[in-house]
Every structure is written in C-alpha cells, then in structure tokens.
Amino acid sequence: MNSYPRIVFLGTPDFAVASLHTLLENGFPVVAVVTAPDKPAGRGLQLTKSAIKRYAVQKDIPVLQPLKLKDPEFLEQLKSFQADVQVVVAFRMLPEIVWAMPALGTINLHGSLLPQYRGAAPINRAIMNGETKTGVTTFKLQQEIDTGNILLQEEIPIGPDETAGELHDRMKEVGAKLVVQTIRGLMDETIQGKPQGESDPSSLKMAPKIFTSDCEINWTDPVSKIHNQIRGLAPFPGAFTTFRGKMLKIFRSRPEKIDREGKPGEMQNDGKNWLRYSASDGYIYIEEMQLEGKKKMLTSDFLRGYRPS
Q: Which residues, given as ranges, of the chain have pLDDT below 50?
C-alpha cells in the first residue's frame, strides 16, 4: 500500500487520546471516531463527553456514538467511511461484523505483554501482583477477547513505588508510538502477525475488572502485598480501610518489613508526621490519603485535623 490508509479510531478514555493524537501528528487520515455515548455525570448529572469525543471535536473529526454496535444504521455509517484499517484503544468488545469490516482488519492496543494480563485492568493487576515489568502489545482482533495474533510489543519497566496512574501516563505514550509503528508495518507489509504462545495455560495471569472486594485492605497480608495493592489501585478506584466508621482511601504508602508490635490493622502515629498500620510482617506507613467526605491530603495534614490515638 503506497498511500496512507484511511483509519477509523475506536476509543473512549484519556488513555486512547494519546494514540489518536500521535496518528494525526504523523499524518494518518483518521476519517471517523467511534466512542461511547455521552453520559450523565457530576452533581447536576449533566451529559459529559468522553475524552476521545472532546479531542475529535477539536480536530473536526466525525464522531459516531452507537448505543448498540450491531445497530444497522451505525453499521451503514461505519461502512460509508471506507476505512482500510480500524484502530481500537480502550473501547468495548466489538462484534465480528465490526472488526472484520476493513481490508487490513482491526488492530487493538493492549496494556500488557500478551498473552499475560488479558482483560479489563492490566495496569492495575500487574502492579498489584508486584510485577517489575509490563509492556504494550498491538494485535489483530479476533473473536475471543485479547487473543488475536500479536503484531508488535514493547517492554516497560515498573518502578518499585510506581502507581497505576503513573504507569498509565507512561504507557499511553509508549503505546501511541507502537500504534503508529504497527500501521506503518501493515502498510509496507513488514509485520506478520504471530499467534500468542499458550503452551502452558496455567502460567497465564489474567486482568479482570476491579471490584470493591479488590480494594479493601486486609491488614493480615504481608506488607509487600498491601503496598502493591495500594499503588496498583492509585489514584482510582483506591485501596481503602476504615477510620472511625468512615472509608479511608490510601494512595501512597511505604512498607517496612520488621518485627512489629500490636495486632494487624492497629494504627500508630506520632501525632505530627507519621502514621502507620500493623501488617502481618511489619508496618505500612501512610503518606497520602483521603477520608470519606474530605479532600486528598498528606499524613501531616491528616494528623493535624484528626489526631488519631
């Protein structure tokens, strides 16, 4: 293919904006964007546009917001853009009638080194599991979610105290460049998709959606597991415990593995600068938190206001 392919981009959150922006910066014709319908949000429940829609409107790109991806009217609109390839970044599962439409197929950017961490929350789950590296993968969509032939991958190290939010912001930029490399490889036919290796399915780690039960801290766990849980859920949805009958979300922590005094879950502090909870094999020092109904704050500010005994 000599000329740049016509691209339809499918995505919703901020993570996807980086890839759309980089495609446009590199001269690729994005002829339409597909994103989620506007949703009510905030106290006034005003309809809110997705991050991708806001960006696409600024760039005068046509936006499609189907309620159902098999709706005949939507499919006709999508077909009318005559895309050579579709790019999916952080969007919902597509039916075959959509992903099989373009001649070059549909490529997906996923936030892990597939086949590891298939699923909705690969960034969170990798950190929660204490991984020291992860990556991004582009692959061709097929029927089963996150199982298509791999096109390109790039490894990304994970810092020992890095949060999911910080990794997210680095990963979206690395992923955006990988999307461009993938499109170029498809254009000049230098990329050949390869099946995902699954010789030992029992070795695969999955990345299911995060539920409330994943967020509540169990102080009988080891300090390393609790620290990874806290940073893997920061800044959203946030790991939590209870304080005086209210939810206390914890966003930053410091683990100390040491013989400790007190029962797991017992809070200790100096009344000024530090606050810690006992865990099974040491202490978790809390550095940033948010009490239910209050703003996010540092430990020193929290102690000035509440002085827990």
A: 1
